[in-house]
Every structure is written in structure tokens, then in C-alpha cells.
User: Which sequence fits this backbone?
């Protein structure tokens, strides 16, 4: 047994190359640890380095190319050096470990090193002996080890060895003739070799085999056994080449029929026949069976048969075949004959609506009316319901409740930001990546041909150069057309007449008018404070307790805390922010509960700030006192009613009217009308007649980042101008809404309920409304009518008398 070396020498890890004794191998190095090993080897006198192969990882590796870049010191006159270098590549993120290294390697000597500008290194290494590595270890990123030189087992050269060498050379000659990767010049030089061990090493470098097999050749010390193993591997490779030639012969006559992909398809079939498999066309048979069993209209079946016939004649792996497969699968997945059995039971529907939603009496009545008519009439209902209201008032959940009450499947289509007509109608199959439109995809998701489909945010579609999606929706929502709705991708008529469409919108103003005419609007106004309290107690708080894993007896949120959250932490028409506030309380309490499982907390108005922080909405002290030029208007937005603070200042100037706060065109006209009214009534109002010549007037609407428009702030603008000119303060406990004319008449407005709710939220209990809106008071909840004092006016003089104080 040879002795182990006393000193450590550097180790160079190889991932895809095996080097044999008497070989000179150029190795290209790009990794830092390999570079360190080479640099440390050059610091020694003899430039020794150990070459060792890494064990293959679990991931399958591709076969290595035949190694031709070799040169044997004893055969330099016979073997021509290859132009290609051996590439030594290691994964950058691979863990540095010694456990994945073989213990048999090569002792080598670095002959020459070239360094390139990018930091990579090319080393020319002469392989000397087979060695066994000991004590492999890392030392400051340097992989090093001790080694024991291995001696080849000597054998006598008898007739048996000579016969094996001769047979091996004959087999290698046959291999060269069948492969195109080795030239005959290489074979001529190899025929001069008579040593079994060296012949085995040389042939192993030429064979296109896995590195683990090449490593086994390195580990076999008995030359006879090594050559026998290489001969066995060589015979296997020749057999594989024979199979490949047979496959090529079978498809040779078909090369002129199609493209390169056709050859690949026929090769695959020949391979399956060689393996004894006959399932090469199972996929087509499966499609045929599905089409035969599918309960689809005759026109659809004819189209599918036509597409399947095209698929059979096409190469298997082209882009077009993938398109046809996807199309067939999509059409088969559509519910052409699948329906759910409708349950139209008014009592059941009323119970479900009451379970899921508090209040909304008018909305629920309209839904029940619709269901009653649907039960009495077998004809499709031409009306498409559209819920219009601010965010968070329950439009989407109402649609889900309707689907549940009717025992229908539910699907949702969001149209917010859609600017492409193809999103609705689908893309034609001539385009790469084409797919059905959103309506057909919703039908597909629902799994039945009579679902409830919610078209969310229908007013937020945008017309663009890619078409008008709102126009495309006309066909979808028109009962006289949608029974034969044709999606561009499917290109077959699909019956949408049994689909129950429900649309939602925050506002109908931006919506295409012909589309708006197809919708029956049901307005969902904002919730009052009392309604929000009931919703919070019955729905929101229990849901958040369940979501956050909190028991009801551990955390109690009192009504005073709910009122405080509604008035000072949220100002919204719906209840989304309210629910988020409860979620925040639950999360903070969860921390306390984990730290002390016995904790019990009652959240009220006094300790609410511990969980939600400082209130977000508070009325400043100045707002509670009458101010000159400051008036509280009432505005309606798509998010509900809002208090609109309008400020007016007067200053020396030349009669310029400045309007700020992102006022829309209609609101700017209202401001000009208000100024004209004030100037034309200068005697009644005690205004100097030359006010326009000596002073500038500046009108500003608070919350300047929010756009504002509409005529309903007319009386508020007029009162603010008169107050600023006459220096008479305006009552701070009054809010107002109404359109103004040049003669001072007050015209009706819309959104009265939302505006009244906004006044209550801001703790303003006196509201001025036009006389023409008096009829709308009967639709307000009793809770609002009890808390608010309504001043009904028909002229601007009445507004001034009620809201403008003396100096």
C-alpha cells in the first residue's frame, strides 16, 4: 500500500470532465474557488494540483460531448490536438461541500496558465497518475487534500489480451463509421496502441457517455477489466446508433411531404413502435370520443369534427396544432346543455336577502317584484338590473344573494379599465395567444348556461383605438340578440338568453346612452348611522371575530364605540372602512390575548383611541363659529354625499373673479351666476355698486385635489359671495343645496338622501333644500327626518334671511 502524502495540495473540482493519465487537458476556469486552487498551485515548486470529479446532482444532466481536446505525451506524433478546450463549469450558487466529490482522481501538473480580461483563466494541465484523495477540506476558500498514488495492476500480455485489444479496435472502427463526431485520422493513430490500459483510457475520452461511466473507467486499476468495461459500453453505443439508423430509414421516404417538424413526429411514432407501444394517436381518439359524447348543437359538432380533421393532417408539434387543441378543449368545456334548476320562491328569496343585508327596503322590494314576474312568465325577462350606488353599500353581495336565492351558479366579470372590444367579444384565432371574451369565460367558469353573471363597474369601460367595449356590451345585454351571441374566438352561436345579468355602477353619467337604456336602474343610497350600527352588530363584528379567531365573550365593542368610529374615523356611504376599523381593533386585541389569555376588554368611545389612534375627522374650533365668507354646501358624489366647504375672500383689485379647488365647468358657471345675482341686487343687499371695479373676489372649494362639478352648490356660492362683500357671518350649523338662477329662484337638485346623511355625519342639523324637493322628504328614513330640521326655500332671499347673520 502506498503512503499518503504528508502535505496538502490544491484540489480543482471538475463537473463534466474526466481526465486520464498521460493526457494534457486545457481547462477553462471561471469560478472563484477554482481560480484560487490554480493560483495556489502555481506558488509551489512542482505546480502540482489534484483533479477530482463532482458526483452528479439529482437533476438530470445532458450528455457530454465527445472529448477531442486531448494529447498524450507518448502519442503526440499520432493524435492531433483538438481546437476545442475542455470546459470546467460549476454552478455559482452550489453549496461548497466535500461530500459530493469522488475520492479517486488524478494528480496533475500545471504546465501553462493564461488569464483573460474578464477574470477567467485557462490552464493547461498534464495528468500524471491515478490517486486516492484523503482529508479533503476547505481552508479560506481553498479546496485542498492529501493523496495516495494508485498503481495500475500489471498483467501479462497473453493471447487473450491481444484478442481483446483487436476486438475492441474493430468495434471502435465500426463506431467511427456510424457516428459523425470522430474522424478517421484519430482511429489510425489509435491502432498503434497495444497497451490495454492506455487503449481503454483513450477510447473512454472519445465515447459520448455519462461522466459517471467515465469515472468508473478511472477507478478500475486492472487494465484487463478496464478494457472489458469500455468494450461493453462501446457495444451498447453501437447498438443505440443502429436503432437510430433504423428509425431514420422508416421515415426517409416521407421527407418531401412536410417540414422539419413532420420528421420529428414520424421519428416519435417509430420510437414508440420500436418500444412496442401503439398509443401514438390516443389523444385524437380521446377528442373523437369526447365530441361524440358531447351534447352540443349539430352545428357545433360539425365545426369540431372539421377542426379535428385538420388536426389529424398536421404535424404534431407546430404552433397551429396547439391552437386547434386549445380551441377544441374550450368549446367542449362550455355548458351547451348544462342547466341548474331554478327555485323561484319569494319567501325563500326574502329570507336570504334579509339574512345577508340590513335595510335596503326599496331595493329588496324591486328584486322580489322581478322574481315574481319571472315566476309568472315563462318568457325571458328583457330587463337587465343595474345596481347604482357608492362603494361598499352591498351591490356585489346583493347579486350573490340573488344567485343563492334562485339556486343559480354565480360568476363575476369586472370591466373596470377595459379599453379593448376584444375583451368582450373575444380575440380571433388568427392572433397568437387569442382567447374567448370575458362573457364566454364567465359562462365557462359558472359551469351552466343559466347562471347569474355580475357585470361589475360597467360604467368604467373606456373607448380607445382598439374599439368601443361599451358598444360590444349592447349585443350581450340585448334580449333580442343574445340568444345567438357569437364570440370571435368560439365563432359559434351561444345562447345567453337564459343568463341573469346584473350590472353594478357607481354612477351612470359616464355610461354610453344606448347601453344605459337597456338597464333598469336600482339606486342604492348610502347607509344612515343607525343602519350602519345594525350592520356592524349583525354582520361586520361577528365576521371579524370569526376571521381573527376571537371569542365574543373576550372582546365587546359597545355601541358608543361604533358611533365614534362612524363619526370620527370613517366618512363613507358604505361600510368598508368601518369593517377595516373593526379588523384593526381585533388585531390589536389579538396581541393582548396572546400575551394574557385571560384578557377581557370592552371597547367604548373613551378607550377607542388605544386601538384606532387619533380620530381622522374632527371639526375644527373655527368651523363651529359663524364665519364671514364660509358656507357649508352639500354635494353628491359617486362615493356618497359630502359636505362641501366654500370659502370666499374679497380684496382690492380690478374686478377679477378667481375660482380654485378644481371646480368643473358647470360649477364655474354657477359661481358667475351667483356674482351676477349679488351685483344686480346691490341695493337690497347693501352692496357698493362699484364692487366689480375696485375689488377682486376669490372663491375656493376645500379639498382642492378632488374635482367638483354640478349646479347644486349655487345657493351656497351666492351666500358666500354676499357674506364676504357685506361682512355678515354665515351660520355654521346650516348646510344647504340648491341651484340658483339670475333672478334668485332656487331650483331642485338630486341625491337628497345622500346629502342629508352627509350633514348628519358632520353634525349639522339644519338643512336648506329647494321647495321642489319637498316631495322627496317622504322617501327619507324616519331617523333622518327626526334629527334634521329642513328649511324649504323657493328664493335666494329666504336663504339669506335664514342663514346670514347681522354684522
Assistant:
Amino acid at each position: 500500500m502506498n503512503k499518503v502524502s504528508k502535505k496538502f495540495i490544491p484540489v480543482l473540482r471538475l463537473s463534466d470532465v474526466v481526465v486520464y493519465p498521460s493526457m494534457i487537458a486545457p481547462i477553462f476556469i471561471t469560478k472563484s474557488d477554482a481560480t484560487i486552487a490554480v493560483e495556489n498551485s502555481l506558488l509551489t515548486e512542482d505546480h502540482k494540483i489534484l483533479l477530482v470529479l463532482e458526483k452528479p446532482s439529482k437533476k438530470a444532466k445532458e450528455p457530454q460531448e465527445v472529448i477531442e481536446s486531448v494529447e498524450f505525451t507518448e502519442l503526440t506524433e499520432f493524435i492531433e490536438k483538438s481546437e476545442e478546450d475542455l470546459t470546467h463549469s460549476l454552478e455559482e450558487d452550489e453549496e461548497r461541500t466535500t461530500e459530493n466529490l469522488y475520492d479517486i482522481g488524478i494528480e496533475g501538473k500545471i504546465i501553462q496558465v493564461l488569464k483573460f480580461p474578464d477574470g477567467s483563466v485557462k490552464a493547461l494541465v498534464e495528468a500524471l497518475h491515478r490517486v486516492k484523495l484523503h482529508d479533503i477540506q476547505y481552508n479560506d476558500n481553498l479546496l485542498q487534500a492529501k493523496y495516495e498514488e494508485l498503481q495500475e495492476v500489471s498483467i501479462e500480455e497473453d493471447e487473450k489480451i491481444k484478442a481483446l485489444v483487436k476486438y475492441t479496435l474493430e468495434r471502435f472502427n465500426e463506431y467511427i463509421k456510424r457516428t459523425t463526431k470522430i474522424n478517421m485520422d484519430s482511429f489510425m493513430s489509435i491502432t498503434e496502441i497495444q497497451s490495454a490500459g492506455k487503449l481503454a483510457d483513450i477510447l473512454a475520452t472519445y465515447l459520448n457517455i455519462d461522466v459517471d461511466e467515465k469515472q468508473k473507467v478511472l477507478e478500475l486499476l486492472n487494465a484487463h477489466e478496464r478494457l472489458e468495461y469500455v468494450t461493453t459500453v462501446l457495444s451498447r453505443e453501437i447498438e443505440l446508433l443502429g436503432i437510430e439508423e433504423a428509425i431514420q430509414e422508416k421515415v426517409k421516404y416521407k421527407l418531401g411531404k412536410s417540414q422539419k417538424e413532420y420528421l420529428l413526429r414520424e421519428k416519435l411514432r417509430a420510437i414508440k413502435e420500436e418500444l412496442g407501444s401503439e398509443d401514438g394517436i390516443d389523444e385524437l381518439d380521446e377528442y373523437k370520443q369526447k365530441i361524440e359524447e358531447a351534447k352540443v348543437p349539430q352545428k357545433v359538432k360539425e365545426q369540431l369534427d372539421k377542426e379535428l380533421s385538420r388536426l389529424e393532417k398536421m404535424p404534431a408539434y407546430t404552433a397551429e396544432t396547439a391552437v386547434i387543441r386549445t380551441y377544441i378543449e374550450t368549446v367542449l368545456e362550455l355548458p351547451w346543455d348544462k342547466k341548474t334548476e331554478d327555485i323561484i320562491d319569494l319567501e325563500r328569496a326574502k329570507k336570504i336577502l334579509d339574512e345577508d343585508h340590513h335595510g335596503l327596503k326599496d331595493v329588496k322590494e324591486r328584486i322580489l317584484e322581478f322574481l315574481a314576474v319571472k315566476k309568472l312568465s315563462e318568457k325571458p325577462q328583457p330587463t337587465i338590473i343595474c345596481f347604482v350606488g357608492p362603494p361598499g353599500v352591498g351591490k356585489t353581495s346583493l347579486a350573490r344573494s340573488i344567485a343563492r336565492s334562485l339556486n343559480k351558479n354565480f360568476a363575476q366579470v369586472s370591466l373596470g379599465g377595459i379599453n379593448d372590444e376584444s375583451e368582450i367579444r373575444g380575440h380571433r384565432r388568427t392572433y397568437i395567444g387569442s382567447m374567448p371574451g370575458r362573457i364566454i369565460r364567465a359562462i365557462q367558469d359558472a359551469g351552466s348556461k343559466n347562471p347569474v353573471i355580475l357585470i361589475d363597474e360597467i360604467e368604467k369601460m373606456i373607448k380607445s383605438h382598439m374599439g368601443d367595449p361599451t358598444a360590444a356590451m349592447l349585443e350581450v345585454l340585448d334580449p333580442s340578440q343574445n340568444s345567438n351571441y357569437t364570440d370571435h374566438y368560439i365563432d359559434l352561436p351561444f345562447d345567453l338568453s337564459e343568463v341573469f345579468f346584473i350590472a353594478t355602477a357607481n354612477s351612470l353619467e359616464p355610461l354610453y346612452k344606448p347601453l344605459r337604456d337597456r338597464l333598469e336602474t336600482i339606486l342604492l343610497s348610502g347607509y344612515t348611522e343607525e343602519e350602519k350600527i345594525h350592520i356592524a352588530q349583525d354582520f361586520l363584528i361577528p365576521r371579524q371575530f370569526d376571521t381573527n379567531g376571537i371569542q365574543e365573550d373576550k372582546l365587546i365593542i359597545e355601541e358608543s364605540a361604533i358611533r365614534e368610529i362612524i363619526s370620527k374615523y370613517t366618512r363613507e356611504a358604505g361600510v368598508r372602512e368601518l369593517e377595516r376599523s373593526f379588523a384593526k381593533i381585533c388585531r390589536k386585541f389579538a396581541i393582548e390575548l396572546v400575551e394574557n389569555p385571560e384578557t377581557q376588554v370592552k371597547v367604548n368611545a373613551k378607550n377607542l383611541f388605544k386601538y384606532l389612534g387619533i380620530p381622522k375627522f374632527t371639526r375644527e374650533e373655527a368651523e363651529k363659529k359663524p364665519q364671514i365668507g364660509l358656507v357649508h354646501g352639500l354635494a353628491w358624489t359617486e362615493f356618497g354625499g359630502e359636505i362641501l366647504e366654500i370659502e370666499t375672500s374679497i380684496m382690492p383689485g380690478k374686478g377679477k373673479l378667481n375660482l380654485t379647488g378644481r371646480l368643473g365647468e358647470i360649477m364655474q358657471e354657477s359661481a358667475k351666476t351667483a356674482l351676477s345675482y349679488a351685483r344686480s341686487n346691490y341695493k337690497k343687499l347693501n352692496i357698493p355698486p362699484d364692487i366689480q371695479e375696485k375689488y377682486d373676489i376669490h372663491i375656493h372649494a376645500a379639498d382642492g385635489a378632488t374635482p367638483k362639478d354640478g349646479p347644486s352648490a349655487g345657493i351656497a356660492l351666492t351666500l358666500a359671495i354676499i357674506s364676504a362683500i357685506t361682512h355678515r357671518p354665515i351660520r355654521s350649523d346650516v348646510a344647504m343645496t340648491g341651484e340658483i338662477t339670475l333672478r334668485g329662484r332656487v331650483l331642485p337638485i338630486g341625491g337628497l338622501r345622500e346629502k342629508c346623511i352627509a350633514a348628519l355625519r358632520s353634525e349639522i342639523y339644519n338643512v336648506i333644500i329647494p321647495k321642489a324637493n319637498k316631495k322627496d322628504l317622504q322617501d327619507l328614513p324616519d331617523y333622518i327626518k327626526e334629527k334634521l330640521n329642513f328649511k324649504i326655500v323657493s328664493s335666494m332671499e329666504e336663504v339669506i334671511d335664514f342663514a346670514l347673520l347681522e354684522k
Observations:
- The longest strand covers residues 121-139.
- Residues 59-95, 277-281 have pLDDT under 50 and may be disordered.
- The chain has 28 helices and 27 strands.
- Residues 196 and 223 are 6 Å apart (CA to CA).
